[in-house]
Amino acid sequence: MNGTAKIRQKRSTLKLTSALAQKMHLDSIRLIQYKNYEQAHVSFSPQVNCFLGDNGSGKTNLLDAIFYLSFTKSADQAQDLQCILHEADFFSIKGEFHKDSKKRVVLCAYQAGKKKQIKLDDKPYKRASEHIGKFPAVLIAPNDTDVIRGASEDRRKFFDAIISQVDQAYLNNLIAYNHALKQRNSLLKQFADQDRFDADLLEPFTHQLIDLGSKVYKVRKAFIEQFKPLLIEHYSVLSNEKEVIDIQYESDFEEEIDQKFTNSLKKDLILKRTNKGTHKDEFVFLMDEKPVKKFGSQGQQKSYLIALKLANFDFLKNELGLKPILLLDDIFDKLDDHRIEKLMQMVASDAFGQIFVTDARPERSISIFEKIEQEHKFYQIKESQVEIRETK
Ligand SMILES: Nc1ncnc2c1ncn2[C@@H]1O[C@H](COP(=O)(O)OP(=O)(O)O)[C@@H](O)[C@H]1O
Ligand SMILES: [Mg+2]
After folding, report:
1. Residue 282 belongs to some domain of the structure
2. Distance 365 CA to ligand 2 centre (A)
3. Number of domains within the chain
4. Could you say which of 9, 50, 51, 310 would form a disulfide bridge with 59 (CB–CB 3.0 to 4.6 Å)?
């Protein structure tokens, strides 16, 4: 076989793999007493779905219910109790998915004061965390810039959510780490309250944190190396290559972690909490070598955020072999024409699978989506009722 033939063969194998990639979409959703919806049953297009309605009508809440089916929690940090329709005492969200040519039913239900239930095809999970990554989704809400402007915890949460969807062992280690951290902190507090110190009692927890933390560190470090080129590529497309961006991962685990714990012991005892570990990791977002958080304009921060989310989408798509559901909340309001155009080019190019979009201005969305070939459905939301809206 000569060189060209070899390459050709390689190309066709690649095509075959992408043709074999799993397909997934949400067929329908049924809500009972979720946020503003007393009852709703909506069937969706496997391609583009657009929720139209005035502000406050419930567009974001419907998107949030779809998010819930993927992540087993609301996107807006609301506690489950706050997601129950006012005056009611439980909610349920049932989603009928199509995945790998099979129908799969996800049920999330919560009753005030009880443990929430997550079921797949009527079978309850032992732990909700087992569900994570099975029906992946990415939410882009340009207004929610916490990941850029917020505390380091917001960035850790962002990346942990991505990694957890492809790596169950990582999620388990993270949960175990946080558990050990809680125990170590409460022991430090006990020592302070009782004015005593027992090194032998503290040691096992320190050891656990170092052991689990080093696993978390290694995965985060390898992940960032994979994630970085995706991020850089998306930013340069969105911004017309105006600035050079980068991302830096900083962790106590880079060197001498045992020594760091030993040196920090006095401080830990005074502050009654653990001051070293992966719960202190930081991800620094850079633009032309300066932190975006401090020096980026609003527009640059928004581009960075969208690039992070699109890289998030690509990473999951590559790792899971299927296109996550894409949830776009109010993007047309918050992005300029250039960025909307780039996003729509991606929509039209088949880069995405199923998409859900919200917009308070119907004419705008209708004219944008009429230009694309993908099947699209419009829904009108009014007084907590969702109806198909015909456009012709
Ligand atoms: N638990 C709840 N029970 C009843 N109504 C709720 C609940 N949570 C939120 N809402 C209502 O939902 C409405 C906001 O819906 P939202 O989806 O954010 O609107 P939109 O995105 O269309 O602007 C608000 O009127 C709010 O009071
Ligand atoms: Mg909204």
Report:
1. yes
2. 15
3. 1
4. 51
Centre of ligand 1 from the C-alpha of residue 75, in Å: 13
Which residue range is the domain that position 280 belongs to?
156-297
Residue 254 lies inside a defined structural domain of this protein: yes
Pocket around ligand 1: residues whose beta carbon is below 6 Å from it?
35-36, 53, 55-61, 82-86, 358
Nearest CA to ligand 1 atom 15: 58
**Residue 208 sits in a domain of what CATH number?**
1.20.1050.90
What tokens appear for 140 in the block?
């882009």
Cα–Cα distance measured from residue 178 to residue 185, given in angstroms and rounded to the nearest whole number: 10
Residue 2 to residue 144: CA distance in whole angstroms: 53
172 close to 163: Cβ distance less than 8 angstroms:
no
Q: Which ligand is nearest to the CA of 329?
A: 2
Ligand 1: distance of its center to the CA of 85 in Å?
9
Take atom 7 of ligand 1 and give the residue whose Cα is closest.
35
Q: Is residue 27 part of a domain?
A: no
Encoding tokens for residue 17? 């793999």
Q: Can you give the pLDDT at residue 335?
A: 81
Structure-block tokens of residue 381: 């939301």
Question: Rounded to whole angstroms, how far apart are CA atoms 271 and 188?
Answer: 9
Which residues are within 5 Å of ligand 2 (an ion), measured at CB?
60
Specify the residue with its C-alpha closest to ligand 1, atom 8.
35
What is the tens place of the pLDDT at every residue in 147-188?
A: 999 999 999 999 999 999 999 999 999 999 999 999 999 999
Stronger pLDDT, 166 or 371, i.e. the higher one: 166
Q: Choose between 82 and 346: higher pLDDT.
A: 82
Question: Which ligand 1 atom minimizes the distance to the CA of 61?
Answer: 17
Ligand 1 pocket test: pick from 33, 36, 54, 327 the residue with the most ligand atoms within 8 Å of its Cβ.
36
With bands split at pLDDT 50, 70 and 90, how would you rate the model's confidence at 392?
Answer: low
